[in-house]
Amino acid sequence: MKILKTLGLVVLGLLAIVALLGLIAPNQVTTSRSITINADPATVYQVVSELPTWERWSPWQRRDATIKNEYSETKVGAGAYYTWTSEDSGAGQLTITDARGPDSLHTLIEFDGQGNTNSNWYFKPAGKGTEVTWTFDAKFPFPFNAMLLFQDFEGMINKDYEDGLVFLKEEVESILPAGPDLTVKEVDFPATYYLVKRATVTMQEMEQHFQETMPAVGMAFGQNGVEMAGMPTGLYYTWDEATQTSDVAIGIPAPSGAEIAGLTAIEIPAGRALQIDYVGPYAGTGAAHEAIAAYLEAKGLKGKEPAIERYMSDPGPDTETDPNKWMTQVLYLLEK
Questions:
Q1: Helix axis angle, 153-175 to 41-49, nearest 10°
Q2: Cβ contact 244:218 at 8 Å
Q3: Greatest CA span in the chain, whole angstroms?
Q4: In which element (H, E) is residue 52 found?
Q5: Partners of 95 in the beta sheet?
Q6: Residues 330, 310: Cα–Cα separation, whole Å
Q7: Which residues of 272-283 are buried (b: 16+ CB within 10 A; e: fewer)?
Q8: Which of 57, 59, 75, 329 is within CB 3.0–4.6 Å of 310 for a Cys-Cys bond?
Q9: Which residues contact 156 (CB under 8 A, 6 or more apart)?
Q10: Which residues pair with 251 in a beta bridge?
Q11: Are 331 and 275 in contact (CB under 8 A)?
Q12: Are the CB atoms for 254 and 195 separated by under 8 Å?
């Protein structure tokens, strides 16, 4: 009994020491690491936002061969997640909580029984490349924060993040295509009748707006028995630099005169247009718009609204899944 009493006093003493250390120890670790990658922000963002690619460049995946991942049905962008189990690295889940391509990506990492961590990404143009910043922000509850006095936790995270960014750079630069063909063609644009949903959308909302609206329009066509007369299309009427908003109509060409409740009919007459067949991730189509704008100026031509994007590659499960092979036809109508 005396031994048990002594052990009890020792345990109480140790708990008191831990509690005292917890009062003076930091309870949060915040850090970030950056690297410059020789690719445009849209390309780097695309790789990071596709969770299965993490298996190729994640420092933890490279270090621990026992990690096994399971992915959500959606594997790209906001809402996508994967869970992992491992003999050496525990278990948990990583979720993309916000995706603002190609500028930033925010994730929540949940460690089974060990709390949560916010880990975010920022992509900033740097010359012809991209400065990529990866951040880490974790809080340690009292009294477990006392361990921070004895472990260089921030140093370990910094090393992992530095390694991960180097591996990401290798991954992106190894798959980087030679560059999109931005050849401008002058073409005949046929008279086209569209059924669309039109709205004013901010740049930050644009990706989510397309993800929600395009499937809804396609479903409306199917439910109403209206035949698609062309590929899904985005019609861009305005772009306000001050407010970073665009008046955009998302829809599908339809037989002339067709009607669907909730969709607006827009008819664009035949005429001449400038066209680029852009091949690559959707987030990189800005290069095609810039190339056509430069062509207009160089040739003394004048365009008129709307600017048109035809999405020729459907990234569905039964079609092309590699974003580097998706084609978007970018067209600018010409004034007569």
A1: 110
A2: no
A3: 102
A4: none
A5: 81, 108
A6: 7
A7: ebbbbbbbbbbb
A8: 329
A9: none
A10: 196, 233
A11: yes
A12: yes
Q: What's phi and psi for 325, nearest 5 deg?
A: -115, 0
Tokens of 212: 């929600």
Q: Which residues of 215-224 are buried (b: 16+ CB within 10 A; e: fewer)?
A: eebeebbeee
CB–CB of 334/272 below 8 Å? yes
Tell me the backbone φ, ψ of residue 309, rounded to 5 degrees.
-120, 120
Sheet with 129-139, strands from edge to edge, namely 28-37, 129-139, 115-126, 104-111, 91-100, 81-85, 68-71
User: pLDDT tens digits for the chain (336 residues)?
Assistant: 545 444 443 334 333 443 343 344 445 567 889 999 998 888 899 899 999 999 999 999 988 989 999 999 988 888 999 999 998 878 999 999 998 878 999 999 888 866 688 899 999 998 878 999 999 886 655 444 444 434 545 667 889 899 999 999 999 988 766 567 889 999 999 999 999 999 999 988 888 899 899 999 999 999 999 999 999 999 999 888 788 899 999 999 999 999 999 999 999 999 999 999 999 888 788 889 999 999 999 899 999 999 999 999 865 555 667 787 889 999 999 998
Please choose, from the candidates 134, 133, 130, the residue with its C-alpha nearest in 3D space to the C-alpha of residue 176. 130
The single residue listed with the structure tokens 């160089």 is 298
* Three-class secondary structure assignment of 305-334: EEEEEEECCCCCCCCCCCHHHCEEEEEEEE
Residue 93, strand partner residues: 83, 110
Distance from C-alpha of 268 to C-alpha of 277, rounded to nearest angstrom: 20
Count the neighbouring beta carbons within 10 Å of the beta carbon of residue 213: 20
- How many of the other CB atoms lie within 10 Å of CB of 246? 20
d(CA 77, CA 264): 29
As a whole number of angstroms, the distance between CA 97 and CA 234 comes to: 26
Tokens of 303: 């365009």
